[in-house]
């Protein structure tokens, strides 16, 4: 079904061990470092044995949910990017570049302003917004022939449209929009256990479903004609995998706001390490995506402490040169 060569288990397990180690180190660093630096051993001790001290309050109430939010959102964005790149066979596909994140953010803001009673349905509403933006992107890009560059340009245009509508709502309904400004800032600062609890089931279920569907992504990545020749219902599987990618990105946006380029950089890194078999790369994308966003959040706290730099800026500083280089290579 996959038409892919078998990978040696030894380097695969090695990279999984590296990814898991980076994830654990990122989580520990997130608990230990910030405006108040703690010894990592003490931070781990307070995590395992919480008490009534101020340090315990910092670890459990402030940094605990923030760390889990970064780990979950990074994993969701990494896997989402891998799914979208696989199903579109487009190395430039990314939840941010395709407009999914901007559409999800617009839906969340519109809910806060116009339907405040439905604010508890953040993930489903963000999914609807992201799905609509992705549909527009594909519709615009495929009118004259779908290519990686056309898809990226259409996604940038749709993202700009969604961003303009978001800004317009913020200006016209400024008071109502205040409740969503913090949520859409592209940061994990100030996240609570309640917010983590609302998004975590969607992200965990999405990640499990992605791992189960990895074999189908392999077949779709071979091309539509080849997939049909193997007896695959390409329309059904394409919609299923694409929808799952949008769901993971939307759940991440509902938790952290739009943070671009994680879903672009991480899948390319995992394919360089383990090849193109999604059964192997999707779990590693989850590990490295969570580690990347969490390490970036730690760096955002330390660059200008006690003030914080938005983590989205650091991710953009990493992702923008990568995207430009990749786009130039695709055009060539």
TrEMBL record:
It is a multi-pass membrane protein. GO terms for cellular component: plasma membrane. Its main location: membrane. One of its GO terms (biological process) is siderophore-iron import into cell. The chain crosses the membrane at residues 67-84, 96-115, 121-141, 153-173, 193-214, 238-260, 280-299, 311-327. It comes from the Bacteria. Keywords: Cell membrane, Membrane, Transmembrane, Transmembrane helix, Transport. It is found in: Cell membrane. The keyword Transmembrane applies. GO terms for molecular function: transmembrane transporter activity. Belongs to the binding-protein-dependent transport system permease family. FecCD subfamily. PANTHER family: FE(3+) DICITRATE TRANSPORT SYSTEM PERMEASE PROTEIN FECC-RELATED, FERRIC ENTEROBACTIN TRANSPORT SYSTEM PERMEASE PROTEIN. This is Iron complex transport system permease protein.
